[in-house]
Predict the structure.
Amino acid sequence: MQRAFHLLRRRLISSIPVLLIVIVGTFLLLEAAPGDAVDAYVLSIGGGDPALVQSLRASYGLDQSLGARLWLYLTSLARLDLGWSVTFGRPILDVILERLPNTIWLMGSALALSFGLGSILGIVAGARPGSMSDRVLSVGSLALYAVPSFWLGLVLSIVFAVQLRWLPTSGIETIASGKQGFERALDIARHLILPVGALGFIYLALFLRMMRAGMAQAWRQDFALAQRAKGLSRRRIVLRHIARNALLPLVTMLGLQAASMLGGSVVIESVFAIPGFGRLAQEAVAGRDAPLLIGIIIVSALLVILVNLLVDIAYALLDPRVGASGATT
Amino acid sequence: MTVLKRLLRTPEGLAGTIMLCLLALAALLAPIIFPSDPLSIAGPALLPPFTDAAFPLGTDRLGRDVLAGLVHGARASLAVGIAAAAVAVIVGALVGTIAGFAGGLVDEALMRIVDAFQIVPSFLLALAFVSVTGASLTVVIIAIALGAWTGPARLARAEVLSIRERDYVAAARVIGMHPLEIALRQVLPHALPPVLALSSVIVASAVLIEAALSFLGLGDPNIVTWGSMIAEGRNVLRSAPFLSIIPGFGLVVTVLGVYLFSEGLSDAISARKTTN
């Protein structure tokens, strides 16, 4: 446990400069945008006189120099203040925190589905390389891997929501249903089935293929040969030795895919009209709300760092070799 | 035996090559088969597929030919995919080579920048970039490359780290060659093959990101793309689902073709290595 704690601290310290690059980089990128939030706001209210524009700029601090604004942004960020969203008329942190849980549910469920089902099917495929089940799963996963998630989402909703009417087409829960507690949870779960499927299937294919490849490799190693020579049953070799060895790279992959999944949820949330973090990004783009977009990118970077920390800890707990040398330095 | 022959002998390689050749053919011949603008109105609106020989795949809400859009869409998808991957591989290989070869503070700084690009979801980055600069084909290509160059950079750096200690590099140093020349002319060419192998995967993901961007209405509005066709079909999802479904097959075939091709290629290359 102390080893994991050590690793955690080291990772946290090394991610600080990286996060700083992200913050300054996005700030500068969005500064280059023509027009600012005040322009967009004035346009949305049908124009205004220059004096109003001037006073609005001054009140948001948009009339100062670039360096001064960056410094102002960094210092307020240190106080956990992400600024004010003009489009929502609320603090950016509040807006993000309100939307974040929906996305975390979506991503978490999709990760669990793809990791769980992907590794199980990968074990099935890798247990007997070259067999019929292996071929079907390999070809099927490759085809699934090529399907764009937003299109899969549309097809799923055409079939299951429009034609069969089994599941709702959009939203995160039935609006104004007055449901509470367990019933509400069930309602949200029903709304999440299609988006989670659409987002998760592509990663399911990825995990399946990795698991299969890892197992095929493990079969060729000496320990597998020794166990077969010893007369261990195939099932026991597969489950206790081969699959275990192949599972570790999947855990690494889980961390690597966190960023890509967060990006994927932007489109999925748009397809299923889920009021989440990704949809917020789209709204920020539409509203030319640069501070909101910076906030979203920073929070998503933090989220990715967090997922990778969890993956590192899981890895350290699963594989005793990891971090053993680093803990002493 | 050449790699190409081996490639065509593997079932994956053969299937992938055929799919990509057909797509390339469609993309190249699009202006000849369908000379008129695919965004112009060609016939009655919302014609279902397989009902009119003039419009085999039907027409959309505004009476635009779906087949013409599909064929012209292959152009945009392939162009963006290949161009974005090329930019990403070139930039990534250069940065990775410099980082690996220079070492020390330069390496540290460059790799932290790579880290920073990797923790930001590349799709969000592309979204932000397009929204800042305004959508056009070039902007979309750069936006996608922004999130894709880190993989090649890491790989190139790892390769360079193993190459830079070899004797011929030391010899180049001894004869007084400029470090930049050693890095770019002696080390980079040897570090390149694994990076190029990665590029097919980057093409595939670039095609998918382009489709997602234009699906969200952030693509070039003057060009027909599969993503924008799917988005357009969404408006009549209940009455004419085929409008959203058909362009998706174009995407699936493209991405699948690239994957099959790269799988066949890696098989062919590794088979050659083991026989030699």
